[in-house]
Amino acid sequence: MTAPASTPDLLLIAERHALPTALAHLGASEAHAARLLGVLTLDPTETGACPRWAPSLGTLDDLERVVHETKPAIALLAIPAAMTACIAQVRERCAALNLPAHYLPTLDDLLAGDPASALPAFHIDLNALVGRPVRDVDAHLVRQAVTGKRVLITGAGGSIGAELARLCARFEPEDLILMDRSDNAIFEIDRELKETLPNVPRKAILHDVVDAALTRKRLESLRPQIIFHAAAHKHVPLMEDHPAEAVKNNLFGTKSVADAALALGIERFVMISTDKAVNPTSVMGATKRLAELYIRALNDRGDTRFTLVRFGNVLGSACSVLPIWSAQLAQGGPITVTDARMTRYFMTIPEAAALVVQSGALSDSAGDVFVLDMGDPVRILDLAQRFLRAHAIEPDANAITLTGARPGEKLHEELAYDAEELAETPIPGVLSWVGRAEETTWIDGATARLAAACARHDPIEVLGELKACLPEFTGGSLAEIPVNRRYSQEAIAPGAA
Fold first, then answer.
1. pLDDT digits (tens, 9 = 90+) for 4-63
2. Of the listed 234, 255, 276, 467, which one is catalytic?
3. Which segments of 255-411 are extended strands (E)?
4. What are φ and ψ of residue 378, in 5° steps?
5. Domains and their CATH numbers in the chain
6. What is the pLDDT of residues 57-85, one digit of tens each?
7. What is the CB-side half-sphere exposure of residue 427 using CA atoms within 13 A?
8. Catalytic annotation present for 276
9. Which of 72, 142, 345, 404 could form an SS bridge with 11, CB 3.0 to 4.6 Å?
10. Does the reported pTM lie above 0.90?
């Protein structure tokens, strides 16, 4: 069988249920079959299910080696569209190898009428999108943080939490504990790891970390050595309308896990924060800032080492701009941008996960606030134009619609406060602040007052308490809080009236 010279060499990466349909589709084309170098499967048990003309080359773990040895021109991804996190991970790894990854719709996708399955999958250079080289994982530091340890990830079903789970699973933890309150999310990441890394000991725990008593009981039973706390509400405009929910999940969920870690003497607690916590203008940012202050205050109260990792927007995460724009293109466009002036710091999902895990291995002297040097902020409009060009679309006025900034959104984000003098760490591109933590004797009184406001289900009162705690918080779009409702941090210290 001879293929035309113009036909590129193909590498098929397939999930086991999608493999037969993909092979049937490719085998129907003499040119495709002739140029198919082989197959990588997600499930090690399926490597023998390939015909002679489509030899099995291993599993996804062998991707880098196979690409180096066979030098394919294109990777075809036969993975169900519902496995969005897995598809994003494979595309990230292909991008790092400069290998274009094209999506091959599965039979289920086509029968379900998934609009994304009709969208041509163009190779997107993430380096070009973020405006800087994407950084590699320091395997030594990851191994130091998780190998042979009992690792707990809260929010393990989310974009960052799931990527943390994948990364940790590759480095042989003693036990990998996946915790999330979404049954669908925790089921998906557990199923994925069962198929891709079946020998890794793991537990899937359906649990809401806001329940402090049960959280303490869970951790007492599980006895993790390191906790990566990714559970949080993240959608800025939505949290503007639900300040009590933001406080409960982002502040009290963090407090619940951190308090249990402190009481049980767990070695390390790493909180995932956001650049929106710096001089916050949104409810989400304010709640994350209070969570930052709370866990930093705990460093003086016991043996547990508390650190936080702060970064900007994550490309490819659920409901971030790339999947939203992809869905808009699939519907015929245009894609939407809020404000032509708006800028953001961007990183990829693997970068975010690597930063979090690597920071868990740094010594106490490295500080307790870690920030990724994310280069220069990127204008959202520029990112949208690059995205369109990557899909062979001219980014003119008809292709992009400006919708206006949403409640709580800043035009420009910041990665650190002026008082946080950042210094280099042993991890290239990772900075830390080793300065003295802010005075936080008021934090216990503040959390008590916020808990009471949440219990009364009064969003205006919740906003008032947030603004009282954080003088720099300028947001809160439900209503204007009178200036006389704002009081000093001294007034909400423990024991204050």
1. 445 578 899 998 877 877 777 676 555 455 588 999 998 766 555 577 778 889 999 999
2. 276
3. 268-274, 305-311, 313-315, 335-337, 343-344, 346-348, 369-372, 378-379, 400-402
4. -110, 135
5. 10-123 (3.40.50.720), 139-433 (3.40.50.720), 443-492 (no CATH)
6. 999 999 999 999 999 988 888 887 667 67
7. 29
8. yes
9. 72
10. no
